[in-house]
Design brief:
Blueprint lengths: L5 E7 L5 H12 L4 E7 L8 H9 L25 E4 L2 H4 L11 E4 L12 H23 L8 H10 L4
Parallel strand pairs: 1-2, 1-3, 3-4
Helix pairs in contact: 1-2, 1-4, 2-4
């Protein structure tokens, strides 16, 4: 019997870099066990081209990625999330919408690679480092025995990953 994938939403303020990286990486690394989404509290309306370039260099699918409001996922007809994870400190401090269902929540802060000053190479390096940090956290997350942990234990494990 095939289990449907877990839905995971990554939130950031602008939904143009870190949350986009996390969405693409979880879809790539989970091999169908998770369906990643991303959104922002104040979406920029465009995805940072270096986020797309970084994901593509890692073999991730980027078709259809867009910068969108988190309100999209609070609507009645939105996919029900199993996990909602903020990846920037600004979004973590904001009042989030009500999420349908009872998703587990956590905050995994990462520095914003789009705020790095310097030439194109310095910016690419910043995106690569952020993608590497997100990948490391996701690999730990994906190794959790989802089907063997009760809800409270799983919630605690997901939050504890912030320290990794």
């Amino acid at each position: 019997m095939n289990t449907p994938p877990y839905n995971i939403l990554f939130l950031c303020t602008g939904n143009s870099a870190r949350s986009i990286l996390a969405e693409g990486l979880v879809n790539h690394l989970s091999h169908g066990r998770f369906k990643g989404y991303s959104a922002g509290s104040q979406p920029m309306g465009r995805v940072n081209p270096l986020a797309i370039e970084t994901l593509q260099s890692l073999g991730c699918e980027t078709n259809g990625m867009s910068s969108k409001s988190w309100d999209v996922f609070a609507a009645e007809d939105a996919p029900k999330m199993d996990f909602v994870i903020t990846v920037c400190d600004s979004a973590a401090g904001e009042a989030c919408p009500y999420w349908p269902g009872t998703p587990m929540t956590a905050h995994w802060g990462f520095p914003d690679p789009s705020h790095v000053d310097g030439d194109d190479e310095a910016k690419r390096l910043a995106f690569a480092k952020t993608a590497q940090a997100i990948t490391q956290r996701l690999r730990l997350f994906l190794s959790l025995p989802m089907d063997k942990l009760d809800t409270l234990s799983l919630q605690n494990e997901v939050r504890a990953l912030a320290a990794q």
